[in-house]
TrEMBL record:
The chain crosses the membrane at residues 27-53, 223-244, 250-274, 422-443. It comes from the Bacteria. PANTHER family: UPF0754 MEMBRANE PROTEIN YHEB. The keyword Membrane applies. This is DUF445 domain-containing protein. It comes from Nocardioides psychrotolerans. Keywords: Membrane, Transmembrane, Transmembrane helix.
Length: 447
């Protein structure tokens, strides 16, 4: 009987307390708190996306002495775009970390998508050889003429026209075999000549807008959802904030809780996009990272961008000739081309060698080979042919990206910005703090 009295008394007291509490509340101000936190949450995620992607290039002012001062600042401050360069301003986190994303993209994904040899084989070297022969053959007469006039003009002018034409024809006749040898040599040594990591990093660094495009082209829908979830998260988190504020009536509560709400809103938004990597059930609801739900569609978009803009036949040709290992490529190709010059002289090789001298003959042969190297790979820069070959790279990358474990797929997209996410959270906290002060200014303390 005593327990029943206690329960009845407790219930009555609770009802009385709730009635007193509800009666004292300024309901417009109370309801406005979750509305405020919802709007602030929306603005936090909307501006957070702007901070992620814009501007593509640093905008700000350079301050004398800032570069030197930056070296002694805390590491987190040094990570703010522009600080280490001596400026105060902003550059989107994603474009600012373009080179790093390129490095991680290679380590986490592209290196697993295929070796340089596999990429090269996808481009079908036989077709490349045929294209080179077609484009290069008309240039042979000019090439031979230029080299001979430079190295031994008198001999070349004294030769009868039919003999000179015969030399050119023999070089042209050797062309298919020579080009096949060249493309085969490239294929054999491609792993030493081509470094996809350097190629991707360099291209991303020079084209930060491309990294932004990768995110936006396949993730815009999820990024828009993140903005609207900012409102939902902010509104829901604002309900307990309103209750606590109405009970304790402390001026510092709303700004402090605003910081918590702002931080959590951004953190939940990032979690929503990338986590969990594998589908899970939380309270009976299936939860899976928004990006990861569409890995197959994302793989197609990602493959299209990489095949059209990053690992292209044109860029492979540029890297082979002008990249850090270009000298080695040129030497290898010249070595492959020299036998063609010997064969072009045919039965007269011995006589010609005696007539011009062994050293001069070797100089002529080597000059033709060196001149031919650059022109041999010029067809790599044919945009129409390069576009046709890109389709094969796209298919390979799309297939392998779809096969990536979800954790690797997330790492590829998130690792470059993960250590900078604190800036987004701090930005959310600052906006939450400002929202708390704004509400205090409009409605006063304790609703």
């Amino acid at each position: 009987m005593g327990r029943a009295c206690v329960d009845a008394c407790w219930t009555g007291c609770s009802v009385d307390w709730f009635s007193d509490w509800a009666g004292d509340i300024h309901w417009v101000a109370f309801v406005s708190i979750p509305v405020f936190t919802g709007v602030i949450g929306f603005l936090i995620n909307w501006s957070g996306l702007w901070m992620l992607f814009s501007p593509v290039k640093f905008r700000g002012i350079t301050i004398p002495g800032m570069r030197e001062l930056a070296t002694v600042l805390p590491r987190k401050i040094q990570e703010v775009p522009g600080v280490l360069q001596g400026g105060i301003g902003w550059q989107g986190i994603v474009p600012a970390r373009a080179a790093k994303m390129g490095s991680i993209a290679v380590d986490k994904a592209i290196a697993k998508l295929g070796t340089p040899s596999e990429f090269y084989q996808q481009l079908e070297p036989d077709q490349i050889a045929e294209h080179i022969v077609t484009v290069f053959r008309p240039e042979i007469p000019q090439l031979v003429d230029e080299v001979m006039l430079r190295e031994h003009p008198r001999l070349w002018r004294d030769l009868p026209r039919p003999v000179r034409d015969a030399v050119v024809e023999r070089v042209q006749a050797q062309l298919p075999a020579v080009v096949t040898r060249v493309t085969t040599e490239i294929g054999i040594h491609i792993d030493q000549l081509l470094d996809p990591k350097i190629m991707v990093i360099d291209h991303f660094q020079k084209n930060p807008a491309l990294v932004v495009r990768i995110f936006r082209d396949f993730g815009q829908r999820e990024l828009n959802l993140m903005v609207w979830f900012g409102f939902i998260f902010g509104f829901l988190l604002g309900i307990p904030v309103a209750v606590v504020d109405s009970i304790f009536h402390q001026a510092w509560l709303l700004p402090v809780l605003g910081v918590v709400v702002g931080w959590l809103t951004n953190a939940l938004g990032m979690w929503l996009i990338f986590e969990p990597t594998e589908p899970r059930r939380i309270l009976g609801i299936k939860v899976h990272g928004l990006f990861l739900r569409r890995q197959d569609q994302a793989a197609e978009v990602y493959a299209q961008i990489i095949a059209e803009d990053v690992i292209t036949l044109e860029r492979i040709g540029d890297f082979l000739l002008d990249g850090p290992r270009g000298d080695r490529t040129r030497q290898m190709l010249a070595t492959a081309l020299r036998p063609a010059i010997d064969k072009a002289a045919g039965p007269l090789r011995g006589a010609v060698r005696v007539a011009v001298g062994a050293t001069r003959f070797d100089t002529i042969r080597d000059s033709v080979a060196r001149e031919a190297v650059g022109r041999t790979l010029t067809p790599f820069k044919d945009p129409v042919f390069s576009a046709r070959q890109a389709e094969k790279i796209r298919v390979l990358i799309a297939r392998r990206t779809k096969e990536l474990p979800p954790a690797d797929f997330v790492d590829m997209m998130r690792s470059a910005i993960k250590e900078d996410e604190w800036m987004l959270y701090a930005h959310g906290a600052i906006m939450g703090l400002a929202g708390g002060f704004l509400h205090l200014w409009i409605f006063g303390v304790g609703s």
